[in-house]
Amino acid sequence: MTVVSMEDVVKALSNTMGKKGMSHEDLEKLAEYILSFFGYTDEVIDNRLTSEDRDVFYMLEEEGFLTTTQEEVHLKKGKLWRIHYWILKKDQILRMAHLEEEKVGPEDPSAVYAQMDEGVWKKH
Q1: Which of 3, 12, 38, 72 is packed most tightly, with the most Cβ within 10 A?
Q2: What CA–CA distance (Å, rounded) separates 113 from 17?
Q3: DSSP alpha helices (H): ranges in 1-124?
Q4: Under a CB-based contact definition with an 8 Å cutoff, are residues 89 and 64 in contact?
């Protein structure tokens, strides 16, 4: 079972939403908010959420932190009951938390300029 720490969630949020201008303090609050729902489990039943919580969960789904699934249960009266779940994407959170800044590589066209000598720049 994959385990995600508070630090992992904060780093992942920092690498995604932090780049969009969210403050570090708000990122920490959001990480605590997320983990308060999931605790030691991977999923949360949708009925537990308020409409405000659900809005935040949709935003987190767009960022790749959550996904949804549903289960259909047949009741004795012949009715179909759908149960919706939110699932914490722990592997994705760990990937986002450990993103390294892109380094200039040989496939990057600007790598040519980084390798040029100072003398070349002075000539032209």
Answers
A1: 12
A2: 32
A3: 6-16, 24-38, 51-63, 90-97, 111-115, 118-123
A4: yes
3-class secondary structure, 84 = strand
Q: What angle, rounded to 10 degrees, do the helices at 51-63 and 24-38 form?
A: 110
Question: Tokens 């994407």 label which residue?
Answer: 89
What's the angle, vertex CA 87, arms to CA 85 and CA 92, rounded to 5?
A: 160
Rounded distance between C-alpha atoms, residue 105 and residue 92, angstroms: 25
Chain Cα centroid distance, residue 53: 16
Nearest C-alpha neighbor of 4 from the set 44, 58, 40, 30? 40
Nearest to 7 by CA among 31, 39, 34: 31
- pTM flag (> 0.85): no
